[in-house]
C-alpha cells in the first residue's frame, strides 16, 4: 500500500523501515503468490495494474476495518490517572523495559504499567491511528515524523556479529560483512531491518547469505546461535545481556552498517495523564542515570 500511496518503491521502503531491495522482493513475492503483476514499474515510479487496483481496494477496506477495531479497543479501555500503556518492540522489552519499570515502580509503587509488544512498523501505524500515546520505535534510518507526536532519541547502539564461543570467528576482535558470508546465518523475520541491511551488503559483494535455518523472532535466532548451529547479527547491548546466560561471543562489525536508534514517541504532554508525564520525564533522565546503556564507539 505504501508503494501505491507514494508512487515509488523508495517511499515504500522508507516508511516500512526496510531496505529498497527488501521492499522490492516483498512485492515480487506477493505478485508470484497472486499469479499476476500488481505494479507497472517505470523509470522513477510505479502504478497499479488492473489486478493491482483490485487488490489495493480490497486491502484498503481490510485496513480500515482493522483501524476501526483498534480504535474501538483503545477507546473502550481508557487509562485512569495512575495507568500507563507502552508499545515497544521485542529488543526494547528484552534490553531495558524490565529495569525501567522496576526503577519507576520504586518511586511510584501504585501505578499500573501495561506493556504491549509491537514491531516498530506496527507501532508507528498505531501512533498514526491514535491507538497509543507513548511508544518505543527502533530503526536504522533517521526518524520519520509522525503527525501529532514528538520524539527523542533514547539510545543508539551498533550491531555486532553473534557467534557461539566455539565458532571459528569467535576469537576475532572485528570482522567485515565479507568475512561472515561463508558461514551459515540464522535467518531473521522477513520484515527485519537487520536482515535486509546485511543482505544488501552481501549483494553489493556479489554474494548471498547462507540461511539454512530461518526463525520467526530475534530471540529465537539468539537461542539457535547459542547451540552452535549458526551466526547472526544483533544490537550490542542485548548480546551483552544474553552472554550472561548463553555461551555467546559478540564481535565488532566493520563497514557501512548503521547503528540502531531507539526513539521514544509521545503525544504533547498536555494530552498525557499525570503518570504518563512522570514516566516520560523518567525516560528522558534514565539514560544519564544508567551509563551502562551508553555505548562508546571504539
Number of separate domains: 3
Tell me the helix content.
40-55%
- The CATH H-level superfamily of the largest domain is Periplasmic binding protein-like II
Strand order of the largest sheet: 4-3-5-13-6
Spans of at least 5 consecutive residues with low confidence: 68-76, 294-298
What is the gyration radius calculated from CA atoms? 21 Å
| CATH architecture term of the largest domain | 3-Layer(aba) Sandwich
Question: Percent of residues in beta strands?
Answer: 15-25%
CATH class of the largest domain: Alpha Beta
Overview of this protein structure:
Strand 1 and strand 2 form a beta hairpin. The chain has twelve helices and 13 strands. Helix 2 packs across helix 3 (20-34). It folds into three domains: 2-74, Arc Repressor Mutant, subunit A (Orthogonal Bundle); 79-157 and 260-293, Periplasmic binding protein-like II (D-Maltodextrin-Binding Protein, domain 2), CATH 3.40.190.10; 159-254, D-Maltodextrin-Binding Protein, domain 2, CATH 3.40.190.10. It has 298 residues and is α/β, with parallel strands linked by helices. The strands form four sheets. Strands 4-3-5-13-6 form a five-stranded mixed beta sheet, sandwiched between helices. The protein has a four-stranded mixed beta sheet with strand order 8-12-7-11. The chain has a two-stranded antiparallel sheet with strand order 1-2.
Question: What's the arrangement of secondary structure elements?
Answer:
Elements: H1 2-6, H2 9-15, H3 20-34, E1 39-41, E2 46-48, H4 50-75, E3 83-88, H5 90-95, H6 97-107, E4 112-117, H7 120-128, E5 134-139, E6 149-157, E7 159-164, E8 174-176, H8 177-180, E9 184-187, H9 193-204, E10 210-214, H10 218-226, E11 232-235, H11 236-242, E12 248-254, E13 260-267, H12 274-289
Parallel strand pairs: 3-4, 3-5, 8-12, 9-10
Antiparallel strand pairs: 1-2, 5-13, 6-13, 7-11, 7-12
Amino acid at each position: 500500500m505504501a508503494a501505491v500511496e507514494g508512487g515509488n518503491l523508495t517511499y515504500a521502503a522508507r516508511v516500512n523501515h526496510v531496505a529498497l531491495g527488501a521492499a522490492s522482493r516483498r512485492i515480487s513475492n506477493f505478485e508470484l503468490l497472486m499469479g499476476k503483476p500488481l505494479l507497472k514499474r517505470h523509470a522513477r515510479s510505479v502504478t497499479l495494474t488492473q489486478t493491482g487496483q483490485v487488490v489495493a481496494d480490497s486491502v484498503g477496506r481490510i485496513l480500515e476495518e482493522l483501524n476501526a477495531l483498534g480504535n474501538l479497543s483503545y477507546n473502550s479501555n481508557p487509562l485512569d490517572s495512575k495507568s500507563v500503556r507502552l508499545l515497544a518492540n521485542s529488543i526494547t522489552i528484552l534490553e531495558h523495559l524490565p529495569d525501567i519499570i522496576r526503577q519507576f515502580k520504586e518511586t511510584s509503587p501504585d501505578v499500573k504499567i501495561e506493556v504491549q509488544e509491537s514491531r516498530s512498523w506496527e507501532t508507528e501505524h498505531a501512533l498514526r491511528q491514535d491507538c497509543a500515546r507513548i511508544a518505543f520505535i527502533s530503526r536504522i534510518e533517521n526518524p520519520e515524523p509522525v503527525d501529532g507526536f514528538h520524539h527523542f532519541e533514547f539510545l543508539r547502539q551498533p550491531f555486532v556479529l553473534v557467534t557461539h564461543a566455539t565458532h571459528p570467528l569467535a576469537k576475532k576482535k572485528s570482522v567485515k560483512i565479507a568475512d561472515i558470508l561463508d558461514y551459515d546465518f540464522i535467518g531473521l523475520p522477513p520484515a527485519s531491518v537487520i536482515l535486509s541491511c546485511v543482505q544488501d551488503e552481501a549483494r553489493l559483494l556479489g554474494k548471498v547469505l547462507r540461511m539454512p535455518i530461518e526463525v520467526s523472532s530475534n530471540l529465537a535466532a539468539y537461542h539457535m546461535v547459542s547451540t552452535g548451529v549458526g551466526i547472526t547479527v544483533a544490537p550490542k547491548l542485548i548480546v551483552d545481556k544474553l552472554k550472561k546466560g548463553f555461551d555467546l561471543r559478540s564481535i565488532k562489525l566493520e563497514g557501512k552498517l548503521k547503528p540502531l536508534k531507539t526513539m521514544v514517541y509521545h503525544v504533547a504532554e498536555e494530552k498525557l495523564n499525570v503518570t504518563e508525564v512522570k514516566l516520560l520525564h523518567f525516560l528522558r533522565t534514565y539514560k544519564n542515570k544508567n551509563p551502562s546503556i551508553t555505548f562508546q564507539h571504539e
